Amino acid sequence: MHEIERHRVILSEVETRPIVTVAHLVDVLGASEATIRRDIGFLDKEGKLRRVRGGAEAINPPSDASLLGRPYSVNQTINTDVKRGIAKAAVDLLSDNMSIMISGGTTTSAMSEYMRGLKLQVLTNSFSIADQLIKKSKCSVTVPSGKIHREQNIILSPFPNDIANHTYADILFIGAYGVNSHGVMETDPQIVQAVMKLINRADQRVLLVDSTKFQNRSSMIICPLSQIDIVITDDGIDNKSKEVIKSAGCRLIIVEKQKQ
User: Fold this and answer.
1) CA 7, 12, 18: angle at the middle one, nearest 5?
2) CA 100, CA 201: separation in Å to the nearest integer?
3) Phi, psi of 59 (to 5 degrees)
4) Total Cβ atoms within 10 A of residue 49
5) Is the pLDDT of residue 260 over 60?
6) Arithmetic mean of pLDDT, 126-134
7) 222 near 215, Cβ under 8 Å?
8) CB 11 within 8 A of CB 43
9) Reduced to 3 states, what is the DSSP secondary structure of residue 126?
10) Does residue 236 contact residue 257 with C-beta atoms inside 8 Å?
11) Chain segment 26-49, per-residue pLDDT in tens
């Protein structure tokens, strides 16, 4: 494909999504990563788009674009009891007066039920967690500025320098779409960027995932497993995944599924 045509396709893609990744453009255009990155760099200098880590975004991003992945309301109905058990094990790591950060997701959101008796400083981009903690806990709650994405129940800031850059916590809790030897995966680049802002802003990083997440795959990598300190999952995890976690140097906490 000619350079002019590639540029036309790239600009069309960034106008329909908040962020377009290099990997996506490689698939669409059939060009190499080096070519795509060179095109993005050129268009960025021309002021036609904005280069961001791993891709590009529109100068005036669409305001009504949905995030990739299943809606929060659907995920909330999947493996509910398992997620609650994982969330409770996560809260068992906490004590009064700790500062924590919680990234949005249905498993991390289940933590709020068990945090009601604790007095914590909490930064979260989960609208659900913030709402529950404000109403039913003693916790001090901070949320980032940004847009509330109703389908995923999270608040995402479009600004590179927001409150996350001025916060440090004892523990960061995150969920994920998938986990394997390549690292912790998500479905949408905006969610990846939001978590990456937080990943180095805590003494410990704790990953909450039910065992089905070890079967999921995505091209969006948040971080390698070696950056995670603790992985909490259920006893449905397979031996191969256990070895992957342990070889990455993570502490593994396994929660027993409730018997029906």
Assistant:
1) 115
2) 10
3) -60, -40
4) 23
5) no
6) 92
7) no
8) yes
9) strand
10) yes
11) 878 888 999 999 999 999 999 999
| Of 141, 77, 151, the residue nearest 107 (C-alpha) | 77
The residue whose two tokens read 């994920």 is: 176
From the list 240, 226, 239, 228, the residue with the least C-alpha distance to 202 is 228
Distance CA 145, CA 123 (A): 12
CA nearest to 84, candidates 61, 62, 114: 114
Question: How is residue 155 annotated by DSSP?
Answer: E
Tokens of 172: 């960061």
- Of 74, 254, 233, 251, give the one whose Cα is nearest residue 153: 74
Q: Where are the beta strands (DSSP E) in the chain?
A: 19-21, 50-52, 55-57, 99-102, 121-124, 140-142, 147-149, 154-156, 169-174, 178-180, 183-186, 202-208, 220-223, 230-234, 251-255
Helices (H), 156-238: 189-198
β-sheet bridge partners, residue 220: 186
Length of the chain: 260
- The residue type found at 139 is C
Structure tokens at 220: 């969006």
Taking residues 206-230, report their average pLDDT: 92
Q: How far apart are CA 72 and CA 63, in angstroms?
A: 19
Rounded mean pLDDT, 52-72 = 72
| pLDDT at residue 69 in the model | 61
pLDDT tens-digit map of 181-212: 999 998 888 888 889 888 999 999 999 999 99
